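Usage

Read records sequentially. Each one opens with the input sequence:
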Amino acid sequence: MSPAPLPNAKPFNLPQTLAQALDLHRQGRLAEAEQLYASILSLRPDHFDALHMLGVVKLARGQPVEALRLIAEAMRVKAPSPQILLNHGLALNALNRHQEALDNFDLAIKRKSKFPEAHINRGAVLAVLGRDEEAAESCRKALAIMPNNPEAHYNLGNSLRRLGRHDEALKSFDRAIALRPNYANALNNRGMTLQALKQPDAALSSYDRALSLTPHSADALNNRGSALHDLERFDEALTSYDRAIAMQPGDAQILYNRGNALKKLHRYEDALASYDSALTLRPDLAEALNNRGSTLHDLNRRDEALESYDRALTLRPDYAEALNNRGITLHDMQRYDEALASYDRAISIQPEYAEAHQNRGETLQALNRTEEAHISFDRALSARMQLSGAP
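and closes with the structure output:
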């Protein structure tokens, strides 16, 4: 015999429950929306909207594996719309399945050409894949449909910055920030663009604005340190790097930058320790090996310095700065012929490398090859004038 129904029990109203779940979802009350979507699926496991929207909730709550399963199940129930293709792509992207995500965004756009969110996310995936020209074009297509979308301006700025088109990138970041004044990521990347444009004071201001919004951003603190380093405010740079490391202890790049500030402060042993920590995390960080070598040179540990330069050059045989530094150490060890060979390799890679020409001249002078030395000094002077834009 079936149990008698409870006297006050109300029959389950599926459309009403779905509408309530969608309303909670729009309000950002994800846990409550999730419960209602799940209650629908307990009765109707193949309910398209409940499967799809529960997948969207799972994605928003950082559960991309479950999100992908639910959205894929929804796509088996009903032919996918552009919106569900977009969300399927977002779940794939969250799982670093970038090419599959791109395929979904492309299909969404094929079915709905004026779909700005699909163009924006397509651009973001292309950027991850290193295809920044195409990524920039996707952002422009999004902006043609939705000119005031701050995310599209931000993504366009990122691609333009990576392409070395810094003036254009700056305009994109400025537009993103005008539309969304509290856009911390745009403020941070605007600072990086200003640094590339040799405007460290303006960059510092941008990083400080970003940090006023996100005080615990290791990335912004690291970049702030870099701007202070450019301004030769090395003590302040070190403080910024230390704060960044406290937020993100296992970041090799921050430890490398910290080592550079310590080196400028002539705290060579501390700098060496910071480079070594960076290299423990990333043994392939050629820049750290080069600067470690220079620090060992300053500590008069010349043989170890050469070993560090050689490790850097094993990783990057065309590393002109490491070859120049190697030449300096060999010169100081009075191994002049080897120093010359190192300078010559640096210059073959970077013909207008003023410092390498200058150092080559000094080594030639030490060998009493005065005429050749003067030619090298002239080349150094010419390269410096060219760099400064002097006529």
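Summary fields computed downstream for this record:
- The radius of gyration is 29 Å.
- The domain at 184-249 is CATH 1.25.40.10 (Serine Threonine Protein Phosphatase 5, Tetratricopeptide repeat).
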